[in-house]
Structure formats: structure tokens, C-alpha cells
Design brief:
Elements lengths: L4 H12 L4 H15 L4 E8 L2 E8 L10 E2 L4 H9 L3 E3 L23 E9 L2 E10 L10 H25 L24 H13 L6 E4 L6 H10 L8 E5 L5 H9 L16 H4 L4 E5 L6 H13 L1 E2 L8 E2 L3 E6 L3 H6 L5 H7 L2 E4 L9 H17 L3 E4 L1 H9 L5 H19 L4 E4 L30 H19 L4 H8 L3 H11 L3
Parallel strand pairs: 7-12, 7-13, 8-9, 9-12, 14-15
Antiparallel strand pairs: 1-2, 1-6, 2-3, 4-5, 5-6, 10-11
Protein name: Nitric oxide reductase transcriptional regulator NorR
GO molecular function: ATP binding; sequence-specific DNA binding
Pfam families: AAA_lid_14, GAF, HTH_8, Sigma54_activat
Length: 507
Amino acid sequence: MSLSIDLLARIAIELQSGITHEDRFQRLIGTLRTMLACDASALLRYEQHQFRPLAIDGLSTDVLGRRFALSAHPRLEAIARAGDVVRFPADSSLPDPYDGLIPGQEALKVHACVGLPLFASQTLIGALTLDGMNPTQFDSFSDDELRLIAALAAGALNNALLIEQLEGYNGLPAPRQVSGDASESEMIGLSAGMIQLKKEIDIVAPSDLNVLISGETGTGKELVARAIHRASGRADKPLVYLNCAALPESVAESELFGHVKGAFTGAISNRSGKFEMADQGTLFLDEIGELSLPLQAKLLRVLQYGDLQRVGDDRSLRVDVRILAATNRELKQEVLDGNFRADLFHRLSVFPLSVPPLRERGDDIALLAGFFCEQSRIRLGLSGVAISQPALTLLRQYHWPGNIRELEHAIYRAIVLARAARPGDDVLLEPGNFALRPQAAIQPAQPLSVSKPASPGVTLREATDDFQRQTLRAALKRSGGNWTSAARELGVNVANLHRLAKRLGIK
């Protein structure tokens, strides 16, 4: 069997058709899978020494979220270095990155594998991978035919990247300049909510506007702040982080604005605050809603006039700092309740961003599961980590009160449990490896029954407090310790719930 001119023309036409890049690439690999009779095909984008899937066919959905570092995948490294068609022998000792990731054949190894590196002006921009269970699956196709396919795909991918660059919107996961491990800063997700969030980040990042990032605990607000800073004109300057919730009141002012020697007991030398450290750069104030009202007033002055005073110093210092703030509280309600200054709120929320909770992100759950599987595989030194389709269904159905952070921990814990049950370097995650209940099984809060009156001598206030304490603890237990979810279940504002918990001695 060989590729006819008609079939090659069909590929070319589909790559030039007036549909989105994502759909175009999906149709390309779907066509290739049919034409070449392969069991799986994938189009990968190359950047920063790793491949990331743009479109897949015949592979588990979670593959789209995986990031294949060349250092951890020798077959992909061989494709990246080859410069031409690569045919791996059926008995190759190099592990295939898709072993265990073909639905229905998780226990089988891929036997036939062809890699087509994609170039633009001699620069590697991606790869096409073709895999099959039959060792002789691609023997009838010549290298020249495969080179034609690679050339067509490379042209389409390069055009897509150029168009996205000109439009200023990163719809494809195109490269961003990041320091350190790129995977630690990447925002994984193709859901409508995440695409909209990425668009808004691309709009506001080049400006110097202050940004208020809101979202539940564990949704990835810090990643949003990093993305804004990386795409801003201050990217080569520091991004300074401060968790306002972890600031003791006694040192909060010094942490923000610094102090001079002798300003208070223990001030043995001059010390710069976070604002000075972030001068010309960006200051990320996490959990901004936890700042006290007096400190809010001092923060407002810096935002208004751009000058600050170290604790114990009469002199003013000028600073040029962009503020990114994050909160899991409803700050508008906090303003109405008198717990947050309205003028500071308006200064911070010049451009508000909202990070969607994981339960509203659909198939992003599978992508993130794949991303964390690959990270855990490398961390634990495993050959492969796959998720069965029933396990993926369970992950999609779960409510995820702890959002992405909870998913990451659940994946890592499941891998450890699966490996303990079946020792080996290849791990397949099944539903039993996850201590999760699907969303349908999560019951709404039931009112606690009071079958008898309080004991003699117990006041009405004490009895009421005891009832509230029981109710709050039960809601927190059902939500896995997530305060926002507990507040939603109880029908109260999360800030008010925090204050109630402090009064009742729970927090």
C-alpha cells in the first residue's frame, strides 16, 4: 500500500480549510490515522526541550495535558535530533511514551512507531508520531511519502504559530519566556473558561494596571499572577511574593515597607520591605483580604502616591511597583461588611480576573490528571503512569472542593497506592486507587437534629454556639476542609464564616 496523490491532496486541502487551527490539526491526525491504519497519532509542539500535544487521535484524553521532556523520553529525543523520518524497530529498547495510553489496550506495549520531526527554516517546531500494535504496520509506506506528510504538517503548524503571534492571542500552547522549570508555571486547560482567562491575561499583561485575581482556594491564582508578570514589560524585573494571611500583625508593616535599625525590639539593622524589593517589578499580594484595616490604609497611600516610609524612618522612598492581588474572599461583600476599604478595593480591582473552579472546567480535569501523572512519573522514577477510562470518569464526576491542588495530591497518592499494591515500574491507576466519591454521591448538608433541650445551667447563647460549632465542623468535614465550599453549602459569606469560626474557637 502507498499514499496516492489524491490522499496527499486531501491532507493539503484539510490543512488549508477555513476552520480553527485546533480543528484543522485534529482533522489532520484523524485523516492520517485512517490513511495509515495506525492505532494512534499525535501532533506535538516543541518548545523549551519538551514536546506538548496539540492534537491526538486514538490516545487517552489525558495525553493532551502531558508534557514530554526530552530528558525523560529517549524516543522523542531521538525524533528531535534526527532531522528526518525515524522508524523504531519493534524490539527497540527505548520505551514508547504512549505505552499504556491507548484506551482498551492499557496493558499492551506499542510495537510499531514512526516519528516525523517538523521544521521551519531548519528550526524544530514539532513532531508527528504514528503508533501501531502491529510491528509491520508502516513498512509499506516509503520515507519519501512520510516526508511529504511531514512537510505539509510543518507548514500548517508554522503558519498557525505565526498567525497566533500576530494576533497577540496564544490560543495554541505556544512558547513563553519563563525562568526555571516551565512546567511549574504553565496554565493547563482548554475549557471555555480557561481560554477566556488566558485572553484576558494577554490583554492586561502588557499594561501597568493593577489586577485583582479572585477564585477559590487551590484554583491556581498564583499561576495567573506569574503569567501576567511574564508577559508584561516588567518580566526582566523581580516578581516578589507576599502571603498576607501568613503575616503576623506585629511584623506586617515591616514586611511590606521595611524598617530602620532600632525601630523596634529586634530591629538590629536596616531592612528593605517587599515594596522596595519589587521596585521596577511586580508585587504579588496573596490573600489580600486578610490585611487589617490599618495596614490597608498604609497600602492605599503607597498605591496613590508611589512613596513609602520604612518603620521608624521619617524619610520617604519612591517606588515604581505594579500590584497583583489575589483573594478567595468576596471582597465586594467585605467592603459592604466594613472589613475592607472601598477605596483600596477600587485601586486594586482596576482589571479584575476570576479563576474558574475545577468542577466547572470539564475535560480540563483529564488534562490536568495527565499533567500530574507525568510529573509524578518523573519524580518517582517510573517507566509509565496511565489512568484507566473508569478512573478518568471518576475524576470527572468528583466535585473537587480543593480544586487543582486537591487533584494533584489525589493523583500522587493514587500512584503511591497503586505501586504498593502491584510493585513495578509501570502503574495503571484504577478507581479503587482514589478515595473519592462521585459528585452525585455528595449529599447536601442535613440539619442537625436537637432531640433534647440543653442541660440546666446552659444559656441560650452557649447552646446556640454549640449547635453552630457542630454544624460548621460537619460542613468542613464534608467539603474536605475547603472553607469556600463549606460557606456555599451553609449559605453564608465565606468571610463571615471565617469570623464565626474564630469566635467559636474552631479556627
